[in-house]
Design a protein that fits this description.
The chain is of the alpha+beta class and 311 residues long. It has a single domain, classed as Chloramphenicol Acetyltransferase. It contains seven helices and 13 strands. Strands 5, 6, 7, 8, 9, 10, 12 and 13 form an eight-stranded mixed beta sheet that branches. Strand 3 (54-59) and strand 4 form a beta hairpin. The chain is globular and about 50 Å long.
Length: 311
Amino acid sequence: MTARGRWVADPSIGWRILLDARLLDPPAPAADVRSATSVTELRRQLAAPDPAPVLVGAVGRELVVSAHHSAVDGLGLLRVLEQRGHGPVTSSARGVGERPSGHGYAGTVGRRLAEAAFRPPARVPVDPPVGSRDGDTMVEIDVPGTYRTAEVVHAAVRALVDRGAGPRVAVAVGVTRDPAASGPIADRSALLRLRDVERLDLYGIDRALREAPVERPPVAGSGFVDRAAAVAMRVLARRLGSTLLVSHLGEVGAPAVERLAFFPVTAGGTGISLGAVGHGGRTVLTLRARAAAWDADGLERVLEAVGGRLA
């Protein structure tokens, strides 16, 4: 399915995920590779709304792969990197297989809209508000060691609570159905959603991740429920979603790559997403948020607080 397919989601964002790979050697020039004056500018370009399923750009040894989430998931970005001649690339990420969904499509839409209307998830205080700016702010840090998704979620929630988020901290966790799936690259992602996470310790978060039902992606047909969902999403966009989205690509083996950074999408709720990827004994953590609300300094302080609870 392409970005023009049956993607029922917040229409105000571009839904593009990014993988930044610092290669050991500069990539060979290619006609389909975009360029920019800096990595920051290249990320900004490739995160902007675009109907193309996959876009690639390069600055020096930095190769940035961008994909619309309806066409490629996080692990799919690793396969794109491999297909461009920078493999082999492997990941320790484990999928959720055929774990059942908690609700059907109509039930999921109804439950989430009711939550947005009557019990919205906690928001992360922004101090001071930045004002009106387009696009996303993206920051990153390296921390020594490798960490499980539960550890990353626990550190992130503690950092957000200390900043003033809560109650009702909701964390959406991106997972894959089958990390070893062959065939064409596609979006094989699923979503686990944890609520009231500020009440959970590390053990509770780990258990919740193992037991939470999956939520289906925002993809559907053209019937009444889909049209109603699209309208409701526009009306309640600022109250939908979660306090934080977390997506961990696992421990990645990539001999041709010096460093990796992953930037999931920002959507709904607070509009903050945390990406994680382990490589070479270190973990790169990223935060991505709307530039209208966050500048780099403010977002870096939040990310440093997360990293400080891991390192």
